[in-house]
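Training component of the fellowship. As part of building independent skills, the fellow (R.M.) carried out the full modelling exercise for a liganded target. The chosen ligand was copper (II) ion. The inputs are recorded below so that the supervisory panel can assess the work.
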Amino acid sequence: MHKKGILVTVLIILTLSLTTVIFAGCSVRAQVEAKTKVKMGAADFIDKKVEIKKGEAITLVNAVPSTHYISNGTWDNGKAKPMSEPNAPTLSAVAVSGTGSITVGPFNQAGEFKYYCTIHPNMNLTVVVK
Ligand SMILES: [Cu+2]
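Fellow's submitted model of the complex:
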């Protein structure tokens, strides 16, 4: 009788931990990655220009551990030029650290949109939306 009680307790604990693992998995999957990935190096965009279709998003991925702060705008000859572009998803020094990533979008209007890293001179990205 006592053994059965222990067995039931173990089963309940197992069920609860399994449920936790399943829900944790769901929340990770909720951060949807876009099919277009833009790789970032230690201090630059490895992919400097990407082309996507209207309605699509991009995912900025650190290819090596680093920290970037991404905003709308561009570096022009070593000078930071923040921009506020109509129809561009707004980023205001959004941090991407370690080997992390962020998804930007969807981009719902055609055009060319500029993003830059506020701490790494000349780290520019152009997103072309067709
Ligand atoms: Cu950076």
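The panel noted the following from the submitted structure. Residues 18-30 have pLDDT under 50 and may be disordered. Residues 36-129 form a domain with the Immunoglobulin-like fold (CATH 2.60.40.420).
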